[in-house]
Amino acid sequence: PADIPALCSPAGDYVVLCCDKSILSYSLLLGVMFTGATAVLCPHGKADIIHEMTKGHRVKAAFFHKKYSELVKASLKRMDTPPSLVAVIDSEDPQMNAIITSEEECVTYKVHHPEEHISIILFSSGTTGEPKGIQMSDTAITLMGVLFAPHVKTLFNASPFYWYTGVMTFISPILNSYTVVMSNATETIENVKLVQKYQADGWFLSIGAMIQCTHLENIESYDCSSIKEVYAGGEVMLKSVMEAFLAKVVGGPAMVQVMYGITEGGIMATTNSDDEALLETSLQPGLFLHLSPGVEMKILDDDRKPVAPGSLGEVWFKCPGMTPGYWSLPELNRQVFDKDGFFCSGDAGFCNHRGYLFHRGRVSDLITYKGVKVAPAEVEEVLMSHPSVLDAVVIGKAHSTDTQHVTAFVVRRPGSRATGEEIAAFVDNQVDDVRKLRGGVHFVESLPRIAVGKVIRKVLRT
């Protein structure tokens, strides 16, 4: 923080960062946090609407990488009061150089109530509407390093700077004394090469990215055998995905920790592939054995009433690192928090009689057949076990009398001649009536995915 005394700001000031991961980027982030201001981490794809995302708030400074310069500057000009300090994150930029070389003393802001002071604002993806600012307290930032403490020497991570996991995998190694290799590469193969180059023994990635790795041509020619621990999350983990990743990418056994979390609250629950309790239950899709310390959970129906064990509902959480609310959205905050402080995650799941959580994806992705809700993962696990299926996703197809029919989109393995009828029959023989593929099997060349591998289901619904 002493390297950037020009950022000394009272609590309440906002500093926008629109950048990739770099030493200067994280130095700026730390500097903002240590001076009591709030860092607003803007997604690259939203650089042109910073003025809308920060509307109603005084932005004191804005820093960005050169590649986003044109969009950021155009947006800043549309603010009622543009920031007084604007700089490119480059040591050759005059404004940035003045900050780096300044010898002024930097006064660290003393936080008296870390659970209330907002140090970072992250933004939701905006896939279901406009991006929402998620306020994160100092307590939440500290818990990143407490709850995520891998037992590795070198962890590899390619999460974007502005993601929760991009911040978490920066804070955690500081508190837990391990090395992190941070990649800005968006191509899956480039990240595999970096794992090999740095001989990382830990790998943090999304489940979608795991799938992308297994689909790479000649993936077996790369040596990722140094990996001993894999940390994954972002969607429901299928057993077939985990097994394929270990066999094809890692090339052998490794501990896999599946994490369930939300930006609004952090890591909520975990399951390790070598957990002894799995011997009794088997690794089922979306199974989580352990809630994180301090986490309280309840499963509610559409009327916000508790459901019985084994019944599907919406997952609500309360925890020490929970966001105090969305930035400048009081009406939405009243909707997503109940009177007891529990937050509506928007995720579907259920608990069994032993208290284990079964995550079933997003509530909005559930398929309704004749009044019964079906989780796509429960069908996808069976679908992915077919020898001719390389990749697959299940959605609900609208139906005039049944509401929706379970429908599959499948990528066949090279050389496969399996028909849709054959694959549908394979699945239908292993699932109950409500999960049968009445919407059929549709073959596609590839599934639409975002950069980190998550399937964009709404594209397939249109």
UniProtKB/TrEMBL annotation:
<dbReference type="GO" id="GO:0005777">
    <property type="term" value="C:peroxisome"/>
</dbReference>
<protein>
    <recommendedName>
        <fullName>AMP-dependent synthetase/ligase domain-containing protein</fullName>
    </recommendedName>
</protein>
<dbReference type="InterPro" id="IPR000873">
    <property type="entry name" value="AMP-dep_synth/lig_dom"/>
</dbReference>
<feature type="domain" description="AMP-binding enzyme C-terminal">
    <location>
        <begin position="378"/>
        <end position="454"/>
    </location>
</feature>
<comment type="similarity">
    <text>Belongs to the ATP-dependent AMP-binding enzyme family.</text>
</comment>
<dbReference type="InterPro" id="IPR045851">
    <property type="entry name" value="AMP-bd_C_sf"/>
</dbReference>
<keyword id="KW-0436">Ligase</keyword>
<keyword id="KW-0576">Peroxisome</keyword>
<dbReference type="Pfam" id="PF13193">
    <property type="entry name" value="AMP-binding_C"/>
</dbReference>
<dbReference type="Pfam" id="PF00501">
    <property type="entry name" value="AMP-binding"/>
</dbReference>
<dbReference type="InterPro" id="IPR020845">
    <property type="entry name" value="AMP-binding_CS"/>
</dbReference>
<dbReference type="InterPro" id="IPR025110">
    <property type="entry name" value="AMP-bd_C"/>
</dbReference>
<feature type="domain" description="AMP-dependent synthetase/ligase">
    <location>
        <begin position="12"/>
        <end position="327"/>
    </location>
</feature>
<dbReference type="InterPro" id="IPR042099">
    <property type="entry name" value="ANL_N_sf"/>
</dbReference>
<dbReference type="GO" id="GO:0016405">
    <property type="term" value="F:CoA-ligase activity"/>
</dbReference>
